[in-house]
Write a structure and sequence with these properties.
Elements: H1 3-9, H2 11-31, E1 38-39, E2 42-43, H3 44-60, H4 68-85, H5 95-119, H6 128-134, H7 138-154, H8 158-183, H9 188-214, H10 218-226, H11 232-235, H12 241-252, H13 256-273
Antiparallel strand pairs: 1-2
Helix pairs in contact: 1-2, 2-3, 2-4, 3-4, 4-13, 5-7, 5-9, 7-8, 8-9, 8-10, 9-12, 9-13, 12-13
Length: 275
Amino acid sequence: MHPISNAWKHPKTSATGLLIAVVTVSSVLLKQGITLGAAGNGTTISLVSAIATAMLGLLARDPESQSSSAVSTAKLGVWALIALLLPLPFAGCSGVTVAQDIVKWTPALQSAVAAVDSTAALLAPQDAPIFSAATIGFDTASNLMAGQAKAYLANPTAGLLAQMQTQVVTFQQQVNAALLQAAKIVDPASQQHALAAIQAVAAIVGAILALVQSISSKAQVAQMAARSTIKLAAVQPYLDDYRAAGIVAVQYSEPLELAQLQLARAEQMQAQAGF
């Protein structure tokens, strides 16, 4: 009568059943030649089947008693599998879908940028000018990004897509540079305020980058990555992935755990692409 609540109350049983179903369906699809694309040296279907089989093995070695750690492991397995099987929330099927999604991100982005603008007043006198200089282009970049998305939505052409590709990388680089500058602030309180403000913008720009990346060809993504001189690895220590997942969860009305796994996938895809 209550399948969702029952599944959550009995995660190990539910996860086992779901994994068995995945392995079974994957086997049928592979026999029919359905692969859903390549994944490394194999196929997406074979990867899903292998991960499901590995999770089944891990669950089989769990003690019969549902200790808190066993329950947590099983629930994490459920979320991991759901995140693998479902597309990223910010991976649109078409350019129009992506443009619509970027437009929907606009209020959150503008709010985050407005918070950046007011953060300088919270910093120590010697730190405020450094922060302001590092974030001075955020207002212009966010307005330009939103304007390009609306223009593409009205007239989805290759030229306007190229403009969005250029702008999102430009904005990403501005945010990355600002993070590195904020990290140099010595005063602990000032640094905390500065990083927190920029991190919110970074989370949204990262989601928009994933959106644009999802509708770009491999050659276009390579060109975008080539313009990304401050790589994700350089700013990763200053990103707050938990907070970023919270922003994504609110935007797409989904559980935080799922948003965390999806965010990790998006960051991995960007790193592999050379961002």
